[in-house]
UniProtKB/TrEMBL annotation:
Coiled-coil spans in chain: none
Spans annotated as Disordered: 240-260
Keyword ATP-binding assigned: yes
GO molecular function: ATP binding; ATP hydrolysis activity
PANTHER family named in the record: ABC TRANSPORTER ATP-BINDING PROTEIN (PTHR42711), ABC-TYPE MULTIDRUG TRANSPORT SYSTEM, ATPASE COMPONENT (PTHR42711:SF15)
UniProt keywords, alphabetically: ATP-binding, Nucleotide-binding, Transport
Organism annotation: Paracoccus haeundaensis
ABC transporter domain span: 5-239
Name listed for the protein in its UniProt record: ABC transporter ATP-binding protein
InterPro entries with a match to the protein in the record: AAA+_ATPase, ABC_transporter-like_ATP-bd, ABC_transporter-like_CS, ABC_transporter_ATP-binding, P-loop_NTPase
Length: 307
């Protein structure tokens, strides 16, 4: 099985407009995404994520570099490369006078899917829109419109599915439904590329993550390795009430939280938890309960994208 995506030296420069100077949105990006993975593409606003996705989808022309999708070079086999990928956009773009069923049929026709190979009814069932299949799209709720966008991205049975901020502004029920379907599609062999600002989603869903900032990939690692980059753990102690911060080994940082608990952050590469606890006991501070907190993806993200 080939790599799902191979990007080499990808650059995109937007020409100067009016008083605005030319902008380098992507600055020589190299990135490979394994087939069958759930891959997170993260970064702050304006980092270049949307530009990269639009280039993959064939909506934006690159300035330089090479992009291969499911083994097809975009420049050599543009039709095959576009047919291998489906994109669920962040914006709710659809014809308000089409029903979901009609929208899927039109989308399938645009991709050249023969009528005998279309799976409109199955798609409507997959995203929970069977009962609304013949209703006007303008009458659908915001969450239902997002479900329709997912179905439209799947009409041609792509090998790769790109989800651009799929859960922005949706409720918990829709979010759970979406991730259930995404996991099912991935288990069937589909490669998933996810962009999101909900970092806990990326942490739970993604096998690998790349963080892009200022048009460059600053890190690409497995999710587990990425989480281990931050050398910091926290012990949260219930001391029975507000007490002065006890003397601690060098490198440990105490903080009293609003609920009165004592939080001590320390570098596990240089200190052990028992050294922290021994220092607290030696200062005469009672320990009624203790909990440990690991760094999360948000900590790593902030550290790597801090200007």
């Amino acid at each position: 099985m080939p790599d799902a995506i191979q990007i080499t030296g990808l650059r995109k420069t937007y020409a100067a407009q009016g008083n605005a100077p030319a902008k380098d949105a992507l600055k020589g990006v190299d990135l490979t995404i394994r087939a069958g993975s759930i891959f997170g593409l993260l970064g702050p606003n304006g980092a270049g994520k949307s530009t990269m996705i639009n280039i993959l989808a064939g909506l934006v022309n690159k300035t330089a570099g090479k992009v291969s999708i499911w083994g097809f070079d975009q420049d050599v086999n543009p039709r095959q490369s576009r047919a291998a990928i489906g994109v669920m956009p962040q914006e709710l773009n659809m014809d308000p006078f089409f029903s979901p069923r009609a929208s899927l049929e039109v989308q399938a026709g645009l991709y050249g899917v023969p009528k005998s190979e279309r799976w409109t009814d199955e798609l409507l069932a997959l995203v929970g829109l069977t009962d609304q299949g013949n209703a006007y799209a303008r009458n659908l709720s915001g969450g239902m419109k997002r479900r329709l966008l997912l179905a439209k991205a799947l009409v041609h049975r792509p090998h790769i599915l790109v989800l651009d901020e799929p859960t922005a502004g949706v409720d918990i029920t829709l979010r759970e439904m979406l991730w259930k379907n995404v996991r099912r599609l991935n288990e069937q062999g589909m490669t998933i590329i996810l962009t999101t600002h909900y970092l806990e989603e990326a942490e739970q869903m993604c096998d690998e993550i790349a963080i892009i900032n200022h048009g460059q990939v600053v890190v690409r690692q497995s999710t587990q390795d990425l989480l281990s980059r931050t050398d910091g753990k926290t012990l949260v102690l219930d001391t029975g009430g507000a007490v002065p911060h006890p003397p601690l080994p060098a490198g440990a940082r105490p903080e009293t939280r609003p609920d009165g608990r004592l939080a001590i952050t320390y570098p596990p590469s240089r200190l052990r938890a028992d050294q922290i606890l021994d220092a607290v006991r030696a200062a005469g501070v009672p320990i009624l309960d203790v909990a440990a907190e690991q760094p999360d993806l948000e900590d790593v993200f902030v550290e790597l994208t801090r200007d």
